[in-house]
Q: What sequence folds into this?
């Protein structure tokens, strides 16, 4: 028992490597990561090569993915700020801030984007749409982030840190913040599929990305209206694939970074 | 092993389980007679579950089974989770089983089912049959699972760590009921589970749980020493001198939010406890889930904030202590956690965390000096210095427990508060760790506050012991006195359970949210009378150094005293 398993080459692997291994051990996550990487490459290549229905679909992917990334990052940042502030500001503030967040996650928020698109009219810019999409993604992130932070603050090692007389500032910097990284990354990731979904839905209705910017949703909508099955298949498939991959990675992150983080096992 | 009997429900000869790389079980031979109860123990990973699965014909893929397994009659495996079909009521599950097996119609089957549950002292059994498994408490689910298994009338029942998560008094009661039933029905019962390293010997009823015990270690079966040596009561003199730690009227409660009328509701976990501890003294806190022992341990170190009362260390009131004073007190007061692995930050190496503790509590040391101290600390607990470079995730439970002990010893504490420090360990690992803890305590003359639900362990380690029930002390005395003759019905039950004798308590513990009026044990107590519901008993002395909170025990003590007084 007292010799660490020296023969196993992984015995020294740090917690970060282990988390990565747990993530890729989750099949949908590994597949999702591969698909996402391939898509990125294909989209980039499509931009260069261009032409044909495939090239068009890939070019549309560029718009959709950029928008989703932008809005998703915004939503993630907002949600993390929201959840983090709620936990930091004490119990009453937490209740006041999280009750609306929880209520909002119960609503079909994705419909708010086409609504905003309609209200802003055809002259709408990209930025306001991204802000609305970010707002749509934020409440769910906030709820997950809050739950993760609460669970973290209950963990035993923080009691041990306290028993060691470590001052609060150092406890926050050295112990709490590093341990929030992975669970909060998992929380933040959920904003990406949400933003992509909302944008595609709105664009499909013609109320999403502004005129002249063609995303997958726009392409699907146009093809459907024209009754062009071939033009429809490409973007629809790519969109479905991307959403599936994003969800797969999200699930994997949730499993690998939260429940089974060493020391937080259940 | 005794001579193989051809009619035994289970006979195993030369059973080996192999994978392509390892020998998991090595030539096991044993038999269980009809109506016999065999307890199989062994540390975590010893292969108990594997053996049971192999006996049930469910060996995992990739495992080769060699040797002979002879089974006469039906065999049944109850797995660790006591699996019941979550989507159907208990009654439906019984009815299906009994109709498939004995062709009983539904009415008869339900009557049989109710009888089966009644054997486990389930009140109003017939009504429970309408419930789904998730509507039952953990204890009730286990009773149902075992009753269902027994209703199938197996010749051989294999039970894998049944009811392991229950409190000892509930678990031992349940297993005793099961054993009584299998004996009566002539079923061979194989009980796998955590070993009772050293069942307590007390004046109370003796264990009749198992007829034989076998230990599985390193893939082989061993017969444990026939009779465990009686626990030597700690032969240390009572430490004298003023108390170093004194806890007065400590109350800890957690807010539960508001009810529908907007009133704040509180869950009181520690309810006005007072204890005193002298230099070098050892005090055991005995109690089960919800007794408040663990919260008390943490409240003493101010890891949970008390809502009332006082904790005084060397004359300083810790609640009012400024940070610098508190930090100095933390040098003296250290704690061992129930899950040592979870008590380390998963992202930092053990060395970094030990160094951080040392630096925080003894800031003046030079780096070279502190490196040497870390190595010494690990050596003291029997770990190699290489552990310093590891992250907690790379440690085995036994190593984590020792690393936790090393961290607690670094600041050279004078009081070690232990909250079930061996809860994650089994078998010899557990015994080794506790022996180490005892040796270190003696060498360093540490005072020890040892919270545990295992009365045998607590009474062996503590010179004095307190029995806690729902946040209050119900009995306090020297361990030797409690071992020989505890007076409170709950203490007696805890001690009986530790000796694997059926505890004389019925039913399940009340919810801490709605404790009964009067005495907290009233609904489970075999001695309860009307008075117990009205007046909560107070903790009063019944003999020098022995205090009990129970009306009946106090009356008995008084009668004894009177009889004793008249005799001369
Ligand atoms: S006071 Fe009554 S109910 Fe409580 S333990 Fe004593 S006899 Fe039992």
A:
């Amino acid at each position: 028992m007292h010799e660490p398993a020296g023969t196993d080459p992984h015995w020294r692997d740090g917690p970060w490597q282990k988390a990565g291994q747990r993530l890729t051990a989750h099949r949908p996550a590994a597949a999702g990561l591969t698909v996402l990487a391939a898509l990125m490459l294909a989209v980039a290549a499509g931009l260069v090569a261009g032409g044909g229905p495939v090239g068009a679909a890939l070019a549309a992917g560029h718009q959709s993915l950029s928008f989703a990334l932008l809005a998703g990052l915004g939503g993630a940042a907002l949600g993390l700020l929201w959840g983090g502030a709620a936990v930091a500001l004490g119990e009453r503030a937490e209740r006041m801030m999280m009750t609306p967040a929880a209520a909002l996650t119960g609503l079909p928020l994705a419909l708010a984007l086409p609504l905003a698109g309609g209200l802003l009219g055809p002259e709408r810019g990209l930025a306001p749409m991204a802000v609305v999409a970010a707002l749509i993604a934020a409440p769910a992130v906030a709820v997950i982030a809050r739950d993760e932070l609460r669970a973290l603050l209950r963990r035993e090692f923080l009691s041990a840190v306290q028993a060691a007389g470590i001052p609060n500032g150092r406890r926050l910097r050295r112990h709490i913040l590093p341990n929030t990284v992975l669970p909060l990354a998992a929380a933040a990731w959920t904003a990406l599929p949400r933003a992509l979904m909302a944008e595609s839905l709105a664009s499909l209705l013609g109320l999403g990305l502004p005129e002249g910017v063609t995303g997958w949703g726009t392409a699907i909508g146009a093809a459907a209206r024209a009754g062009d099955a071939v033009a429809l298949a490409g973007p629809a498939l790519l969109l479905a694939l991307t959403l599936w991959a994003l969800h797969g990675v999200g699930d994997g992150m949730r499993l690998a970074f939260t429940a089974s983080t060493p020391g937080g096992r259940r | 092993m005794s001579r193989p009997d051809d009619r035994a429900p289970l006979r195993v000869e030369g059973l080996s389980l192999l994978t392509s790389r390892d020998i998991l079980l090595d030539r096991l031979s044993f038999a269980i007679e009809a109506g016999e109860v065999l307890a199989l123990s062994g540390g975590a990973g010893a292969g108990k579950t594997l053996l049971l699965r192999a006996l049930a014909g469910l060996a995992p893929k990739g495992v080769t089974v060699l040797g002979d397994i002879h089974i006469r009659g039906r065999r049944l495996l109850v797995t660790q989770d006591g699996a019941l079909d979550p989507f159907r009521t208990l009654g439906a599950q019984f009815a299906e089983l009994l109709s498939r097996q004995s062709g009983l119609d539904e009415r008869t089957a339900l009557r049989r089912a109710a009888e089966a549950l009644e054997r486990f002292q389930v009140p109003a059994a017939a009504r429970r049959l309408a419930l789904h498994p998730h509507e039952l408490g953990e204890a009730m689910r286990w009773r149902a699972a075992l009753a269902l298994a027994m209703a199938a009338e197996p010749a051989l029942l294999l039970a894998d760590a049944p009811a392991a998560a229950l409190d000892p008094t509930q678990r031992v009661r349940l297993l005793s009921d099961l054993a009584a039933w299998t004996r009566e029905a002539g079923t061979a019962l194989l009980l796998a589970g955590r070993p009772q390293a050293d069942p307590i010997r007390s004046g109370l009823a003796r264990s009749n749980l198992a007829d034989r015990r076998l230990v599985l270690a390193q893939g082989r079966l061993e017969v444990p020493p026939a009779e465990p040596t009686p626990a030597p009561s700690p032969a240390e003199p009572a430490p004298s001198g003023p108390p170093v730690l004194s806890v007065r009227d400590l109350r800890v409660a957690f807010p539960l939010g508001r009810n529908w009328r907007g009133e704040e509701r509180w869950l009181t976990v520690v309810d006005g406890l007072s204890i005193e501890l002298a230099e070098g003294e050892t005090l055991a806190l005995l109690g089960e889930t919800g007794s408040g022992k663990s919260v008390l341990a943490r409240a003493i170190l101010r890891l949970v904030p008390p809502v009332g009362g006082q904790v005084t260390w060397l004359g300083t009131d810790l609640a009012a202590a400024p940070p610098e004073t508190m930090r100095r007190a933390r040098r003296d007061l250290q704690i061992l956690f129930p899950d040592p692995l979870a008590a380390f930050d998963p992202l930092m190496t053990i060395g970094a965390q030990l160094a951080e503790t040392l630096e925080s509590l003894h800031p003046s040391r030079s780096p070279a000096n502190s490196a040497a101290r870390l190595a010494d600390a690990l050596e003291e607990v029997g770990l190699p210095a290489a552990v310093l470079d590891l992250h907690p995730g790379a440690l085995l439970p036994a190593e984590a427990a020792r690393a936790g002990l090393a961290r607690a010893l670094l600041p050279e504490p004078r009081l070690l508060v232990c909250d079930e420090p061996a809860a994650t360990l089994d078998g010899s690992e557990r015994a080794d760790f506790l022996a180490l803890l005892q040796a270190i305590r003696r060498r360093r003359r540490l005072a020890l506050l040892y919270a545990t639900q295992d009365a045998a362990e607590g009474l062996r380690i503590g010179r004095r012991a307190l029995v806690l029930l729902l946040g209050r002390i119900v009995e306090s005395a020297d361990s030797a006195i409690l071992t020989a003759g505890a007076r409170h019905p709950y203490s007696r039950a805890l001690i009986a359970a530790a000796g694997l004798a059926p505890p004389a308590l019925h039913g399940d513990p009340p919810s801490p949210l709605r404790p009964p009026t009067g005495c907290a044990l009233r609904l489970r107590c075999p001695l309860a009378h009307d008075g117990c519901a009205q007046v909560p008993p107070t903790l009063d002395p019944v003999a020098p150094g022995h205090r009990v909170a129970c009306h009946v025990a106090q009356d008995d003590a008084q009668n004894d005293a009177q009889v004793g007084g008249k005799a001369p």
In short: The interface with chain A takes residues 298, 301, 303, 323, 326-327, 330-331, 333-335, 337, 339, 341-348, 356-357, 360-361, 382-384, 386-387, 389-394, 396, 398-399, 404, 407, 429 of chain B (CB under 8 Å).
